[in-house]
Amino acid sequence: MATKATKKPAAKPATKPASKAAKKMNAFYAQSGGVTSVINASACGVIETARKHKDKIGKVFAGRNGIIGALTEDLIDTSKESASNIAALRQTPSGAFGSCRYKLKSLEANKLEYERLIEVFKAHNIGYFFYNGGGDSADTCYKISQLSKAMNYPLQAIHVPKTIDNDLPITDCCPGFGSVAKYVAVSALEASIDVKSMSLTSTKVFVMEVMGRHAGWIAAAGGLLEDHGVPVVILFPEIVFDQKKFLARVDQLVKKHGYCTVIVSEGCHHADGTFLAEQGSKDAFGHAQLGGAAPVVANMIKEALGYKFHWAVADYLQRAARHIASKTDVHQAYELGQKAVELALAGKNAVMPTIDRISDAPYKYKIGVAELSKVANVEKFMPRNFITKDGFGITAKCKAYLTPLIAGEDYPKYKNGLPVYVTLNNVSVPKKLKKFAIK
Amino acid sequence: MATKATKKPAAKPATKPASKAAKKMNAFYAQSGGVTSVINASACGVIETARKHKDKIGKVFAGRNGIIGALTEDLIDTSKESASNIAALRQTPSGAFGSCRYKLKSLEANKLEYERLIEVFKAHNIGYFFYNGGGDSADTCYKISQLSKAMNYPLQAIHVPKTIDNDLPITDCCPGFGSVAKYVAVSALEASIDVKSMSLTSTKVFVMEVMGRHAGWIAAAGGLLEDHGVPVVILFPEIVFDQKKFLARVDQLVKKHGYCTVIVSEGCHHADGTFLAEQGSKDAFGHAQLGGAAPVVANMIKEALGYKFHWAVADYLQRAARHIASKTDVHQAYELGQKAVELALAGKNAVMPTIDRISDAPYKYKIGVAELSKVANVEKFMPRNFITKDGFGITAKCKAYLTPLIAGEDYPKYKNGLPVYVTLNNVSVPKKLKKFAIK
């Protein structure tokens, strides 16, 4: 280390030239689609990192209710929030600025919306667009980067990955997933040993429904219970439901162990593509609104095998469960938010920071970068070699993949028995433009 | 304090007379009915305390699968378990020795069973009967104490309270309840802020079904969210369901806040006594097996008001959720197990240790004693002044009651992302008697 004597005097910071200050642009950040227990940790990463680079990034404006906030010029000035409020985002589930299920149409179908976004960005001197979402959002983010280029507006669009479904390509995993996986594994383990302890005279089959429309990553987490002695049957969306084979497997496990646990993905479906249970309605993205596969499966078992059952549908409890978040997940969510800003500062555009795994045990990874053109609209399913041959379990390879993602606990602070989750002030940025009607 | 000089020399412990040693009797401990996340903490309290009094209590035998283990002479020798295994019970949910839903008939209807119990106790020199359960078990425990007296067999029967339903009389609360209440409050808070953040374009009503057949204590915990700004409607079993009033309340809250959360007790019922959703089957105690009130309520809202909904049924996840147990609850569960043994050592019979509250804030209580004759078959419902006038919420009085019960966190240890829950060796005690067929 340099001693005081040899230390060079620190250069006096030069006053910034007016031209440079004028060039300093603001950032826009929005949360998109289903929120998670750690999406706010990414927001925290984005905002805290931007605040460290005030020479290059002005204010961070957040879209109130996601991209709708950008379209309607309903922006939140995050610079009005205290450092402690922003720091508290790291331990707060939900979307602190509001999120939305609103899919922009194709450029051809609704160019007006894209042009409006650019108009809003221009009005508020926004040069950085950080979009925190899943596959649909990556597509939107990519389109915006293309349009701004075409319109010659200087915008850098960076996607921050988020999805409990873990179905984004290129990145090894997605923030939000590890915590849901941990929730599912912990909750199913607890319920399973509960059932086991009473199976002689009471419930013999416990069915737990988890999220995952097309990809079975969340359901796969239930497979981690096997190493804790729990007999588990998993119903993946990737494997066509075979009722006869399924019932035979359940019967076999109950006869051997006295009980068994079934983890059924909401996306589990029959050969003709119909889900085990559909509620009939569809969301804004046109996806069928699911729920209720668990009672269907439970009653099927009761009728065919006569076993007493119980079933649970975790629904939002699983994706909001910040109280049992994975430390790895919280850390990566923050890191990817931070990296998104660093990529912007490095002049990148139309990219997404990724988790690139180096090794399973010890778990090592580095942060990489993916081109959005390669991310948008690609869904990553469970590889077949992650699922056992019979289709009802996970392989050692899958266990090695999942284990580091659920590792570590990151407890929020509590007061009077409840977690302290922050509610931001969400102060509006004064509007400058005319109203814009969204459809 | 006495100085060394004035201190009397400690009396040399006298060698116990053979007659006294011969009188030293073993203890029997069993878990009954639905298990909880802290019933093993009570077991830990019983066993660790008994181990401290080896001069008076011999071994602690546990019933394998509850009282069925006593009837079939299927006893577990807990003295074969290491101190660390027994200590680990404190952080392990489920019933470590197995529990059962098996209700002994009345003395008149099946005296044979009661006599068999005494026969087994006699064969294994059991002089202390610790029964860890709810209202039905308190009744069994009381009957056994009466019969042993009638048969002139020296047995002290002590009931250790356990029920997530919190419906035992005299005691201020029951071990198991505080942790479920904490789980419900934490989970519903997390899901509610998730829904709130997306309510503009997505789900507007979140319905969460919780346990509680006749008493609404568990559902009441949802009322604690009000102080966190969450609009909540609670459907108690104590209040007859009024569909019109309910829908009007939901509509009012959604119009005002943009969303609302409904906590529905599984025991919520219509004026004619039929539950909102019955699965038709009944358990061994003759209680209807419930589940599925949440989808009924959610669809009712969708049809009448058109709001997009999501619903969750927590089922066993709530009562097994040791990962988010209340510190107060874990502590009291242990304490009451400990106190049960101390009561036995003090010569008590046909009693149950209780929590006697002294003050809400600061929370203070002492351990009391209740006569089993006054506990058996009495259910404690929510007092009307704990429920708001409109029947959909909880009063300040109720909040003051609930708050200390969910206070504090008591996290289990984790390994590789999952809690370390102990599985005991459960070594059998050699049988001495003929087989006994249970019905």
Q: Please, could you describe this protein's structure?
A:
2 copies of one chain form a homodimer. Chain A has 439 residues and is α/β, with parallel strands linked by helices. The first copy, chain A, has 2 domains: 201 residues, Rossmann fold (3-Layer(aba) Sandwich); 169 residues, 3-Layer(aba) Sandwich (Rossmann fold). Chain A contains 14 helices and 15 strands. In chain A, the strands form 5 sheets. A 5-stranded mixed β-sheet of chain A has the order 3-2-1-4-5, with helices on both faces. A 4-stranded parallel β-sheet of chain A has the order 7-8-6-11, sandwiched between helices. The first copy, chain A, has a two-stranded antiparallel ribbon with strand order 9-10. In chain A, strand 12 and strand 13 form a beta hairpin. The longest helix of chain A has 22 residues. Chain A is elongated. The termini of chain A are far apart. The N terminus of chain A is likely disordered. At the A-B interface, helix 7, helix 10, strand 11, helix 11 and strand 15 of A face helix 7, helix 10, strand 11, helix 11 and strand 15 of B.
